[in-house]
Amino acid sequence: MKYSLLFALTMVLALGTLRQANGGPSKADIKLERWALPNGLQVIFVPHHRIPIASVQVWYHVGSKNERRGIRGVAHMFEHMMFKGSRRVRPEAHAELLSALGGSVNAFTTQDVTAYHNTLPKQYFKLALQLEAERMRSLMISNKMLKSEREVVKEEKRQRMENDPIGRAFEAIHELAYKKHPYAWTPAGDIGDLDRSKLETYQRFYERYYQPNNATLVVAGDLKRGEVQKAVKHFFGGLSGGPKTPGVSIVEPPQKKQRLLRADWNSQLNVVLGVYHIPSARSPDISALRVLSTILSAGRSSRLHRAMVRKQKIALGAGGFTRQLEHPGLFFVYAVGLPQHNVDTLNTALLAEIEKVREKGVTQKELSKAKNQLATSHLRGLATVEGIAYQVGQAALVRGNPMAFINDALALDKVTNADIKRVAARYLSPTNLSLVLVPAGKSKGGAK
Description:
By secondary structure, the chain is α+β, with helices and mostly antiparallel strands. The chain has helices spanning 2-15, 74-81, 93-100, 125-138, 143-162, 165-177, 191-196, 199-209, 225-236, 285-297, 303-311, 343-360, 364-380, 385-398, 408-413, 417-427, and strands at 33-36, 42-47, 53-60, 104-109, 114-121, 215-221, 259-262, 270-277, 317-323, 330-337, 433-438.
């Protein structure tokens, strides 16, 4: 009763901050206004008048899945290179100018997108537009820049992946799970490919993907449509659109048997990392999979933590998450344990918890709690202008509809125990599982 009441109260708050473009709940106050420039640039404006802040974000529809073996890491390189100077802006000046005005700048690369964020006082939003338009088509790419940024990206990979057994397992699980699709590698890239990549590779990549017709501009904040439309046209309207950007048409074939990599790496801990193939972010099954992942993984009272950390005391941590991607993604589960316990014991216990859900489903109490947790997380994601713009951009490029996130809370509330059992049975089957096991101990010479 109290869980249902809490969710109802949460939903009242959610509906009080959201509006659907087709005339959804009347008490909501968020709406989107969309248009396109003749050069193909997609523009989404989100008026938000609570605080005098604006967020200007440019989302390029390019990520590591648009790479191929031989140039892995190029998409991530551009995340760094875009701050290294253009025809009329010196290196690092983009971030310095906005920081001096009280703004913040950020960027990230995923398998599907590369996005650049600028959040600043609303009266300076035109400067952010000007700077983004400048580097969209006037980036100065040189061998000197490549040499410098290549080392930065390589060092990031060493620290986050190669020197960390969990990071190495994360990379290895992608290559184990994907045999055809370029999701087989992560945005971190490949050091050998980075060392071999030439200036011409980056120039071609830039000309292909950093074009107005391959970008979505999201502007959110205390602004009016007229001033945004005029400024966008002024700064971006004169840019020429490029050729149609090729998409990724590779389809990953169904996995028909379990895959296992037992890695012989230096590790102080036992690590088990498993993934199951799931559908793309557009699938209606994603809501049930998100609820299931939350039940298994969110907090100290979650299924995996309660069973493996608190009761059996064989793990330091256990959990998982869903990777919702433009193409079919992955459902992760993991456990990390001390060396006195065998990694196979850890793996057996982890998979036993998955089988319990497949066979018996979950309790109503677990279901209600997970919905409350997800509803709270959903609202937190909309607590800032930057967060709203992020949700819009992510939904537009990964889910094909900038309004898709609006209905997430309602879709999650409709998930039933039967839905949980259905998606667990369909996707979390042993034959759909890829596993990386990392035993604690010193390396004996490679993976096997």
